[in-house]
Write a structure and sequence with these properties.
Shape: flat
Number of strands: 0
Radius of gyration: 20 Å
Number of domains: 2
Oligomer: single chain
Structural class: mainly alpha
Number of helices: 9
Helix content: over 70%
Largest sheet: none
Strand content: under 5%
Order of helices and strands: HHHHHHHHH
Distance between the termini: 41 Å
Length: 213
Amino acid sequence: LAQYVLNIQRMKKLTPESNTQAILFRNCLKGKCDFYFDNQFRFKSLQKTLGDSTPPKILECIQRTVDKHAIVSTQLYIRQLTYETLHLCDKYKLRDNIPQKLTLTDEFVEKETLDCIEQDGDDIDDHSEQLQELLQSQLKDHRLIKLSKRTLKCSGSHHAADMLITRSTDILHQVKVQLMMKSANRSFPQTKQTLDQTLEELKIVTLQDIVKL
């Protein structure tokens, strides 16, 4: 659902070049928005049914489990994004503005993740080991930032810098939406605030800030 929301926002930025494209664009956007709102209503209806039929203690237990999975997923994606941006900056001789911002974000996420793990009675060492295994798997088979070989030949480090900014912004926004949707409003305030702050900071980052002259 978070990816779906992100895709709709991307579509709204498109500019049709003909009347036919404009009509197709409006119809496609309307269809996607209708689908989203229909399913949002269904989700809220099912959520209310669950709340009405489940004892409060069970609901709290379910929410704690959902919260834990949400913050662990957030930590995984932020850590992976940090590693990938560091690697790209080193490989293409870019300034490390973005990795620095992501490292600070990762520190806040890690703190609230470990607090959640401890409160749930899980072993932190086991969590760290599993996180490292998942990171290795993700970095090997599911990169978050993929560069175009053809564009690299033409634009070199400028393409790497452009993708660094674009994908970092997209991934952070997606992670934020997922966390907001899955976790309770009161959960992980520092992480949510930090994600908002980092996204605002990325809005003013330009290619000139990253590409070394």
